[in-house]
Amino acid sequence: MDMAPNAVDDMYNGCKEEMKTRVEKEFLPNEKSTNSQFRQAWEEAEQVYNTKWKRETVMAKEQFMAIYVYNFGRRQICQDIKTAIQTQHCNYKTTFSYHSMTFFLTDALQSLNAQGPAKGRCFVVYRRVDQYFSQSVLGKEIRFGYFTATTLRGYNAMEKKGGKSCFKIETCHGADISMFGNPDTEALIPPYEVFNVTAIKRRCQEPSLDCDVFYELKSTRTLSNLNCALFS
Prior knowledge:
By secondary structure, the protein is an alpha+beta fold. Helix content is about 30%, strand content about 20%. It starts with 15 loop residues before the first helix and ends in a 10-residue tail after the last strand. Keywords: Disulfide bond, Glycosyltransferase, NAD, NADP, Nucleotidyltransferase, Signal, Transferase.
């Protein structure tokens, strides 16, 4: 765990309307035409929106579709998007091929975070994974560096995800997306949110813990190294 220096972390702070226009006119058509898996996932999400989505939502259509693709798309396309966001900082202005997803996901989380009963409030989410991370990060700042799936209902809701590492996370920039009905992804954390590691516990010392290693994280700030980079 570190500050994810290779992440695509654009917040579009100060260029959101310009980016929306560029996504709609340039990036989305190009990305659909050059990536058949993405095109199929996007078309499926649009069909779901048009035929099944009956709930009132503060999200625009494209925001809904981006979250749907990221949550319910075929595993390969979801993994490709996640990996690209985690690793392609240096390619952002050249060959990065998921501008549409990154923009609409960011826009959706910012819209959801700014409205509703949780407006302006931080809230606690949980995550568990079958993977070990550094245990030398107590008191340090970290970012996940991608749109990170969490649950609102505690670690047991993600029991099938493994028992190596558990996270209790106070997020101030993530958003509740539980209306989508995916128990593994009830809230998403954006790649630009920074957390302080406030506690690390180990099951060998505390047998009652749900995972071998337990991390507690508290949101401290945002860091967007690529903010509006396409317009600089």
